[in-house]
Amino acid sequence: MSINSIKRLSVFSTIFAFATILHGVVLAAPVPNPATTPALKTQTSSASHQISKLTNQQRLQIQIARQQRDKDIEALLNQSQTTKFKAALQSRQRIRTVLTSLDLNQDQQKKVQSILQAYNLQVKKILSSQASQPTSNSVGITQPTSQPITK
After folding, report:
1. Backbone angles phi, psi at 71, to 5 degrees
2. Tens of pLDDT along 22-39?
């Protein structure tokens, strides 16, 4: 009888020690830094990188598109949902998080999804217009095209 309790105590103490050591190892693991680990890039990091290179006009276009998106979504909501929606946007919560907390019905969900898709297409169009615009170097001269100069 005492041998079984010793075995149980031994197994328990081994599990406890292992869990304690493992917890310490996990806490001591370095947190990956996006600046030092380029392989960990995500879609949001590339989007935020693109946003930092936007012109003032493009920023304004995206802001106007976002405001229109919010107005369109707000028009679909009932009074209590509208109150929650405005409060969440004021606290700068992500739109997807806000929408999941509103308990939308099926019809509202479909309409909101189409509004979000239209907004995403609009932003993509604005970002693609950035790629087609000529870039400038620090002196203010536009970059030469890859076409040869003909005389």
Report:
1. -65, -40
2. 666 555 555 555 554 444
